[in-house]
Design a protein that fits this description.
Protein name: Dithiol-disulfide isomerase
Keywords: Isomerase
Largest sheet: 4 strands, antiparallel
Pfam families: DUF5377
Organism: Aggregatibacter segnis
Shape: elongated
Strand content: over 45%
GO molecular function, one term: isomerase activity
Order of helices and strands: EEEEHH
Low-confidence stretches: none
Strand order of the largest sheet: 1-2-3-4
């Protein structure tokens, strides 16, 4: 019996982190504020001819949004509401360079 083992290759297509001020503990201009860190990632999980895309948005260590896509059109429609047009364009180029787009 021949056993075929397929490995899943993961490519990080988009990764961004930023700090957001969530509250002001006192007067405007106070020296201390409360911040939280937001992480946004998009990964491609490539398994042979099939590719699954995972979009994740975390606030600190809590996952707030995690969505999986197999269709590029649905992915780009969703991402158009999540990331900037420039980032979306760079993402399209990256997917094209990896040869992940199917005709």
């Amino acid at each position: 019996m021949n056993e075929v083992i397929m490995t899943v290759k993961t490519e990080i297509l988009f990764n961004n982190t930023w700090n957001v001020r969530i509250s002001d503990p006192g007067e405007e201009g106070a020296k201390s504020h409360f911040f939280e860190t937001i992480y946004v990632t998009l990964e491609a999980h490539i398994n042979g001819n099939e590719t699954n895309y995972t979009f994740t948005r975390k606030v600190e260590d809590q996952i707030k949004i995690k969505k999986d896509f197999t269709d590029l059109d649905e992915l780009f429609i969703y991402l158009s509401e999540q990331i900037s047009p420039v980032a979306l364009g760079h993402l399209g180029i990256k997917i094209g360079n990896l040869g992940l787009a199917k005709e």
